[in-house]
Design goal:
By secondary structure, the protein is mainly α. Helix 4 crosses helix 7 and helix 10 packs antiparallel against helix 12. The longest helix has about 30 residues. It is globular and about 50 Å long.
């Protein structure tokens, strides 16, 4: 998870940098296309049998929501301070709770609902509607978090039977041809310098997804998610050094509220799951 945090931070900064030359739709396409070349050696070494699966429908759903989230996210971070973007991305676990209730029919008690409400309050601290301007970028970040929440639920379901490398392989294999369609409408061939940064975006993004998926498959989310908060100070430092962006105190305050709520929700979810397993053991 720590590796994923560092790599995601590098990816975000690289997207912001290369966006001055390449449109966000193209960045999404090249991120996935170049990801195929990165994940390709893994597929070649293990053979095409590595891709054999009985869960193509779930992969397709994961791809639909994940790609939609990626389009929104990549555009939003080109027009929003990256520390604010990362702070709002922490709302994804909050939306996971809501989605789990309505689509997975999970039972959520009052403590988790309260924590979810507090987390959304943290998002309002970052946005401060009525005081600060809520931009299109902010709205796209929230929408991206909703779609990412659905994608996270899908990843958790896939990780029960699928390896992290296969999950990421299917991501880039499906994302690449689909993301080419909108990219064609804004197509311009990247410069040599832009190609370098596109490779950085693809490499950091691909290996970050592998690390993130492996973290979720190896440990409870409540155990690894606290490390995810390191994305905020990491991107804040990068934003200051590379783009002269200075996040205000409201961004950090809201991010802390969102993140603490998310970690609490993850821990409660883990406790509830263990309680269910313990209750089922005597009957087994």
């Amino acid at each position: 998870m720590l590796a994923a945090t560092v790599l995601f931070s590098i990816m975000v900064a690289s997207v912001r940098h290369v966006s001055s030359e390449v449109a966000s739709f193209e960045i999404v396409f090249f991120r996935n296309l170049l990801g195929i070349f990165i994940i390709g050696p893994i597929i070649a070494r293990r053979g095409l049998g590595f891709l054999r699966t009985t869960r193509l429908r779930l992969y397709a759903w994961r791809a639909a929501f994940g790609l939609g989230s990626m389009f929104m996210w990549f555009y939003a971070i080109t027009v929003t301070p990256i520390a604010e973007a990362v702070a709002l991305s922490f709302t994804s676990p909050l939306f996971v709770t809501v989605i789990a209730v309505f689509f997975l029919h999970e039972k959520v008690g009052a403590p988790r609902w309260i924590a979810t409400a507090i987390g959304f309050g943290g998002a309002m601290i970052v946005l401060r509607p009525g005081i600060a301007e809520v931009t299109t970028g902010h709205m796209l970040l929230i929408a991206s978090s909703i779609l990412m929440a659905v994608s996270i639920v899908s990843i958790k379901m896939l990780a029960r039977t699928e390896s992290p490398e296969r999950i990421v392989a299917y991501m880039v294999i499906i994302f690449t041809p689909v993301s080419l369609i909108p990219a064609l409408f804004v197509w311009e061939w990247p410069s040599l310098n832009a190609w370098f940064w596109l490779f950085v975006v693809a490499g950091a993004g691909t290996f970050a997804h592998i690390a993130f998926t492996r973290a979720l498959s190896k440990a409870d989310a409540s155990a690894v998610m606290p490390l995810d908060f390191m994305r905020l100070p990491a991107t804040a430092v990068i934003g200051y050094l590379a783009f002269s962006e200075i996040p205000d105190v409201w961004t950090f305050t809201g991010a802390v509220v969102i993140f603490v709520s998310s970690v609490y929700i993850a821990r409660r979810e883990n406790q509830d799951r263990r309680a269910v397993r313990a209750a089922a053991e005597p009957a087994a």
